[in-house]
Amino acid sequence: MGKEQAVRILQTLEEHGFEAYYVGGCVRDWLLGRPVHDIDICTNAHPGDVIRLFPDPVPTGLKHGTVSVKMNGLFFEVTTFRTEGKYEDYRRPSDVQFVAELRLDLERRDFTMNAMAMDRRGNLQDPFDGRKDLADRVVRAVGEPEQRFREDALRLLRGIRFAAQLDFAIEPGTLLAMKKTAPLLAHIAVERVREELNKTWDSQAPHKGCQLLHETKLFAYSPLLVQLVERASAQAWRLVHLESLTQKWAVLMYAAAFDEEAARQICAQLRMSKRDTEAIAVLVALLNRVQPDWDVSKAVEWGPLLLAKGEKTCRELASALRGCWWNRREEAVFRDLEATYNAMPVKSVKDLAVTGMDLQVAMQKKPGEWISRVLDTLLIQAALHGLPNTPEALLEAAKREVARDEH
Ligand code: ATP
Ligand code: MG
């Protein structure tokens, strides 16, 4: 994606006497034949030179030597060769030094597969044998692994995320260093932890990610996350059959035998948005309710659930259940949901032939919470039990309901 534009950036830099390369993730993904989502460029040109050479530069990360360059409508990050200064608090440093040599820039990168550069003619610069590690399918730290994880503990999670995304093993020395430095993960911002976890669950080998998180004890600082990856590990392979991150999180939590409360705690700990938290917590609660035994498929009574939780939530639930029962290829759950939904003559209170105001007038009663309660009852009757959706029939039923309430 965007290679023609990127090559023009490399060309322009070279024409002005600078070196320029594709670098990092894009080179790795090209070599693997995987889709490339963004192309990063590195150069010995200083940011000031880059700004001078291209129209509309955006100084996105000047302090780190990064300038965003626009070429035919696409943006590319162009970063000056650099090494990193002192690391503080096990996080990436705030200051960097520009350097003249590509090798030094590659040396600061995390894993050998991410420490390769390629010029515009396709010549690979691979001082740490990243290509061999790709062929051997291993994630290997550049340089001395323990030191690299001490510099920046986010690399612990990145390593596991890459192993899951590519279905690679972690090289034994790198894995050992991960186990040793695992407690340092506690220094990393939860938002970054969450993003790496999301990528791990969305990968092609989430079970590998889950198993590695368990084995390396990366979450020792959080008893709940420890339990999650330990208990859900054996079921995590199912995530590849699920459609959304909401479903993936919910099925993991359900597989770990968490209730809604524990689900909410994990979401809070990872500072998920209110919306994501609600969606996940509701799904965990429903999974526990309709399917108390993990993996045992049984008929779901969709009618009341559709009326109480809405169609969207029920579709998420059906997808999640199908993931749980995947080995049985349980399509019936969706057919049942569909059939129940289509068969309901009314689907929400808004579809009823009477409004709250009509009830109030007909009953001569003060407004109050009785209105929504009666409307809900009418909805269930009309949607599932054959009560005709006409003003007469609904008001008649409403009167009976109110009379019963008043007794
Ligand atoms: P993705 O497919 O997720 O974008 P990526 O390898 O491109 O993977 P980025 O986070 O986009 O990852 O980073 C680009 C490059 O910067 C990496 O390939 C790696 O060389 C380097 N890099 C990123 N994060 C780190 C880190 N924490 N420590 C060392 N190098 C890093
Ligand atoms: Mg990238």
Describe the protein's architecture and organization.
This protein has 20 helices and 11 strands. The chain has 407 residues and is α+β, with helices and mostly antiparallel strands. It folds into 4 domains: 136 residues, Beta Polymerase, domain 2 (2-Layer Sandwich), CATH 3.30.460.10; 100 residues, Hydrophobic Seed Protein (Orthogonal Bundle), CATH 1.10.110.30; 77 residues, no CATH class; 57 residues. Strand 4 and strand 5 form a beta hairpin. It is elongated, with a radius of gyration of 28 Å. The model has no long low-confidence stretch (mean pLDDT 94). Magnesium ion (MG) binds next to loops.
CATH architecture of the largest domain: 2-Layer Sandwich
Ends distance: 71 Å
Query: How many strands?
Result: 11
Shape: elongated
What strand line-up does the widest sheet have?
Answer: 3-4-5-2-1-8-9
Computed structural class: alpha+beta
Radius of gyration: 28 Å
Helix count equals 20
Model regions low in confidence, pLDDT < 50 over at least 5 residues: none
- Can you tell me the CATH superfamily of the largest domain? Beta Polymerase, domain 2
In helices, the fraction of residues equals 40-55%
Largest sheet: 7 strands, mixed
In this entry the ligands are:
adenosine-5'-triphosphate, magnesium ion
**What's the rounded overall pLDDT mean?**
94
Remind me, CATH topology of the largest domain? Beta Polymerase, domain 2
CATH C-level class of the largest domain: Alpha Beta
Number of domains: 4
Strand content: 5-15%
What is this structure, in a nutshell?
The chain has four domains: 1-136, Beta Polymerase, domain 2 (2-Layer Sandwich), CATH 3.30.460.10; 142-241, Hydrophobic Seed Protein; 267-343, no CATH class; 350-406. The chain is 53% helix and 10% strand.
